[in-house]
């Protein structure tokens, strides 16, 4: 990190010197460059005359014109020279160079930059004994095993949420389909397939994904994920009421500590706030293609996936379990960076770090959470209570 | 570390730009050499830091450092290196970085090559240049910062918009920006002259190389962009009057007017006020172009940034620079002394004619581009002003301009002789009439006016040659003398002729493409043969293929002409893995100056494909003509008179040192 501060200082010095140098150096002043231009114009006229491009009369007229300019310029130059004082305003230069430039740049940079935060190039991330690397290697191992033994339904089931989270939606769909085919249909598997199809369809409940959710509900009418996404389908079709009904029913049927409650509640709130100011839904034809479609974006799907991964992870071998939590933590951190007001998210992040046995990171996250939530005393209190529970008192 | 140093370098550049905006101009007002002397070194240092910053961002792209948000959002580790690099400017933040990089480099060039400028003018020019730099650096750092970081780098990036993953994109925006930003120098010269109140023939000579440079890059950039749209977007056309295309075309039209009016100002010290206005307008339109693309006001394939908050910032920049400079112009221009007089029929008159038509054409394009926007914001009604509007306004304005084009260089300064000029053009007129008749006689199909348009293009080309022949006194003196005279011609004369020939070639290409192209939209089965224009295509095979970060379905055609095999073509539909976005990869087969163009349609099955096929005669002239124009510009730029003053400076320096010794 020393090299960072050395480079930092050198750059600041160069910038300051750029302002200071003119003080030390004599100015190179081109005297009367305009006269040079006019003299050149005169020789050009001579050349044109010689080659017969212009007649003698034209040449003479042009020459007089240029000479007139030459005289005017010479007059003006001498007037300007006498007006020039040549005063050297050293104090302005010193103030600017030594104080202004460094102070302004360092101040601004510390305001908007993250000094000495290291680069994280792909090569370093792959080479380092980081959690990601283990995780990526693990995924590759599973993939390799599946390539040899594609009938391992359990393997496909393991990979699917990983694919979903890393944005490989088509692969996630394939994995879910394979798991379904090899391990037999259950409500959970059908719902998972529907979710993958939802993600692959750019967060739209496509007819295929809808069909999957419906099959899930046919197998188990209380399957929460399928119920939730069918609500999303209604919402995306513009049937706000139907969506709300479905979600309310889902909440009513869910136990009070169900991990998905938060997601569903939030969707309901969003639904209410979205439908309030504008009673009539925008007509599909007038919609901008780049405007996000109404309805939950991938965050919600990711949250659902995460909840589910959490429950699944408990059944996995321990090392896999940890990797999954780590991957989840990463997703969570990014989400919180974008939206710092999510107190539940922060609580989960802190807890995850504790679960992973990294108290240092847990404390850092707690500190970031306090900063992010500083403006909201209620949430801050909840966070602090929670921290106490975890033995992080603060 | 590099990312953060790049960030800091950008902040330093801002601090230096602030210094450069104030000290030199203060020095110019108070006649203080030392303050004025800061302009050049500070401009160089600013360029250095912006370059460091840009290099740091590029490095983050090359190493796939996804802890930089901008890299995560626009890159992918599996992308080929060239698209990692071009991805730097394939997004809003990065393209703004490119903008200020070019701005800073141009500033440094003025600092280096401006040794022959009067000290006050140079100080003022660099100060004005720094105003622009300050505005854009503030814009980048506070609304579009490419150096924002994630604490923990995500696993994989989101990839660059697939239609932008193309060699065309690697080259097109830098060229376009070199043009846009190049006009900022002309703008700085204009504003500096207005502040200083000094505007004479010498000013025009100093500003013209910059205007020419900007014009050359803009011409290349537009041609490149047109070619990119032609083959990458798979639309099969070369110009769509798309708002973004118009945004780059308007500064070109005004810039073209500027390089012509600067000639008049240089030679006769006339049109001063007008030339300054053109310099201001050329840059204003460049800024407008930036605004139109960046703010997302326009829906266009190019608008990869859609963010109204930034739009407001750019709107402020626009108001400040366009409004400010035009106010300054309105205030100072009346105090400028008018220059030489001339008769309507003269070289000056011809150039004024050129300026009027180019400006009118630009106004037509401006109306066609902005009217739908204004209408939409006022009434909410969406209309689209398409090719018909431009064809009925722009094209009629171009025809008199093209007819007059060969006459201009043949007219004398001050008072010309139209009859004599016509006599000198008789040969050119004869050839173009002959060509028109031949085209009528031998080429079938196409609109009735097409042969006339070909005749016009030939007239423009022959007229440019007639100018050279006239200057060489061809046939009037022995051939040997003529040849030596040709060799002795100033480069600027060659520049004019070559650029005008280029224009004629472009017209030829446009006419050939629009009048005689054949188009076919059809479903083709495996092994089936279709005939388009002069070619027969057989669908040879359909197969999938994997690229580094995409998968594609390829249709291979075997092409024959009059029974002879002329090659194979592979048109493809690509799907990019990360964004799951399809692109169309049209196949092109160049045959002479014509091209055969195959664009795959939406459906590809195992045994059949929908295709659009065009046979486009002469189409390559559209872009090659632009290249010829650019060569003309380059010749003109290398003319010896732009190098004038350099030897004088050396002597002057010695003179200046004497009293000190």
From TrEMBL, chain B:
Residue intervals of the Cytochrome c-type biogenesis protein CcmF C-terminal domain: 315-640
Coiled-coil region(s): none
Compartments, record wording: Cell inner membrane
One GO cellular component term: plasma membrane
Membrane topology recorded in Swiss-Prot or TrEMBL: Multi-pass membrane protein
Domain of life of the native organism: Bacteria
Described function: Required for the biogenesis of c-type cytochromes. Possible subunit of a heme lyase.
NCBIfam families, alphabetized: nrfE, PRK10369.1
Protein name as it appears in the record: Heme lyase CcmF/NrfE family subunit
């Amino acid at each position: 990190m020393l090299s960072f501060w050395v480079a930092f200082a050198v750059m600041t010095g160069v910038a300051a010197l750029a302002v200071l140098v003119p003080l030390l150096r004599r100015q190179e002043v081109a005297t009367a460059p305009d006269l040079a231009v006019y003299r050149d114009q005169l020789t050009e006229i001579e050349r044109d005359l010689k080659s017969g491009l212009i007649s003698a009369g034209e040449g003479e007229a042009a020459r007089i014109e240029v000479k007139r300019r030459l005289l005017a310029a010479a007059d003006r130059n001498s007037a300007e020279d006498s007006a020039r004082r040549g005063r050297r305003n050293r104090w302005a230069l010193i103030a600017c160079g030594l104080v202004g430039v460094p102070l302004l740049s360092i101040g601004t940079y510390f305001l908007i930059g993250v000094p000495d935060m290291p680069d994280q190039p792909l090569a370093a991330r792959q080479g380092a004994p980081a959690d990601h690397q283990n995780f990526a290697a693990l995924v590759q191992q599973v993939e390799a095993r599946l390539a040899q033994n594609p009938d391992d339904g359990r393997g496909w089931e393991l990979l699917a949420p990983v694919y979903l989270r890393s944005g490989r939606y088509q692969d996630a769909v394939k994995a879910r389909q394979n798991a379904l085919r090899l391990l037999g249909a259950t409500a959970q598997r059908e719902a998972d397939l529907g979710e993958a199809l939802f993600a692959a369809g750019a967060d739209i409940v496509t007819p295929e994904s809808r069909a999957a959710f419906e099959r899930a509900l046919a197998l188990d009418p209380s399957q929460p994920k399928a119920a939730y996404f069918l609500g999303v389908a209604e919402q995306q079709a513009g049937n706000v009421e139907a969506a709300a009904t479905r979600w309310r029913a889902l909440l009513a049927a869910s136990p009070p500590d169900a991990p998905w409650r938060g997601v569903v509640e939030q969707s309901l709130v969003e639904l209410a706030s979205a439908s309030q100011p504008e009673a009539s839904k925008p007509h599909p034809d007038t919609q901008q293609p780049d405007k996000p479609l109404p309805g939950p974006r991938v965050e919600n799907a990711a949250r659902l996936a995460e909840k589910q991964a959490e429950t699944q992870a408990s059944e996995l071998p321990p090392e896999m379990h940890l990797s999954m939590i780590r991957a989840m933590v990463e997703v969570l951190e990014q989400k919180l960076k974008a939206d710092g007001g999510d107190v539940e998210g922060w609580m989960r992040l802190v807890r995850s770090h504790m679960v992973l046995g990294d108290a240092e990171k847990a404390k850092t996250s707690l500190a970031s959470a306090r900063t992010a939530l500083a403006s909201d005393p209620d949430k801050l209190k909840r966070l602090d209570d929670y921290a106490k529970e975890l033995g992080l008192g603060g | 570390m590099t990312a953060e140093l790049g960030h800091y370098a950008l902040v330093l550049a801002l601090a230096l730009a602030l210094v450069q905006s104030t000290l030199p101009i203060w020095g110019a007002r108070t006649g203080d050499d030392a303050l004025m002397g800061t302009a050049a070194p500070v401009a160089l240092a600013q360029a250095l830091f912006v370059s460091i910053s840009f290099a740091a961002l590029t490095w983050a792209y090359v190493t796939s450092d996804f802890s930089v948000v901008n890299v995560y959002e626009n890159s992918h580790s599996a992308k080929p290196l060239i698209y990692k690099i071009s991805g730097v400017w394939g997004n809003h933040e990065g393209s703004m970085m490119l903008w200020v990089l070019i701005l800073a480099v141009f500033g440094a060039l003025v600092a280096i090559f401006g040794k022959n400028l009067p000290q006050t003018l140079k100080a003022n020019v660099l100060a004005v240049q720094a105003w622009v730099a300050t505005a854009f650096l503030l814009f980048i750092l506070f609304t579009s910062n490419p150096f924002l970081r994630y604490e923990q780098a995500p696993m994989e990036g989101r990839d660059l918009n697939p239609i932008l993953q193309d060699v065309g994109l690697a080259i097109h925006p830098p060229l376009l920006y070199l043009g846009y930003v190049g006009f900022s120098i002309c703008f700085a010269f204009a504003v500096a002259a207005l502040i200083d109140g000094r505007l004479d023939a010498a000013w025009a000579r100093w500003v013209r190389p910059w205007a020419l440079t900007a014009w050359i890059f803009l011409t290349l950039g537009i041609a490149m962009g047109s070619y990119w749209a032609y083959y990458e977007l798979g639309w099969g056309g070369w110009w769509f009057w798309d708002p973004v295309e118009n945004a780059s075309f308007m500064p070109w039209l005004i810039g073209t007017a500027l390089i012509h009016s600067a000639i008049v100002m240089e030679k006769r010290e006339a049109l001063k006020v007008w030339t300054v206005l053109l310099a201001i307008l050329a840059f204003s339109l460049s800024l407008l172009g930036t605004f139109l693309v960046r703010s997302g006001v326009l829906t266009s394939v190019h608008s990869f940034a859609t963010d109204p908050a930034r739009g407001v910032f750019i709107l402020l920049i626009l108001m400040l620079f366009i409004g400010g400079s035009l106010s300054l112009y309105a205030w100072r221009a009346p105090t400028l002394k008018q220059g030489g007089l001339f008769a309507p029929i003269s070289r000056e008159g011809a150039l004024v004619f050129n300026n009027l038509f180019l400006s009118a054409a630009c106004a037509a394009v401006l109306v066609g581009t902005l009217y739908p926007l204004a209408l939409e914001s006022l009434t909410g009604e969406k209309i689209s002003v398409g090719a018909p509007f431009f064809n009925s306004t722009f094209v009629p304005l171009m025809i008199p301009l093209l007819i007059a084009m060969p006459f201009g260089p043949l007219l004398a300064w001050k008072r010309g002789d139209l009859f004599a000029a016509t006599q000198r053009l008789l040969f050119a007129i004869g050839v173009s009439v002959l060509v028109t008749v031949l085209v009528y006689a031998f080429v079938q199909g196409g609109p009735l006016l097409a042969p006339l348009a070909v005749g016009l293009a030939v007239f423009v080309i022959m007229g440019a040659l007639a100018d050279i022949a006239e200057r060489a006194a061809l046939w009037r003196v022995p051939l040997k003398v003529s040849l030596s005279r040709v060799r002795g011609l100033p480069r600027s004369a060659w520049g004019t002729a070559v650029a005008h020939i280029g224009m004629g070639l472009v017209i030829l290409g446009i006419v050939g493409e629009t009048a005689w192209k054949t188009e076919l939209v059809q479903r083709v089965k495996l092994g089936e043969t279709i005939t388009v224009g002069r070619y027969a295509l057989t669908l040879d095979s359909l197969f999938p293929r994997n690229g580094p970060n995409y998968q594609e379905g390829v249709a291979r055609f075997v092409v024959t002409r009059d029974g002879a095999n002329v090659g194979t073509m592979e048109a493809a539909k690509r799907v990019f893995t990360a964004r799951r976005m399809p692109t169309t990869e049209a196949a092109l087969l160049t045959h002479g100056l014509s091209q055969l163009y195959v664009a795959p349609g939406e459906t590809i099955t195992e045994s059949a494909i929908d295709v659009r096929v065009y046979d486009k005669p002469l189409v390559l002239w559209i872009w090659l003509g632009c290249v010829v124009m650019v060569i003309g510009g380059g010749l003109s730029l290398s003319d010896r008179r732009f190098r004038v003053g350099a030897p004088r400076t050396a002597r002057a320096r010695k003179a200046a040192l004497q009293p000190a010794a």
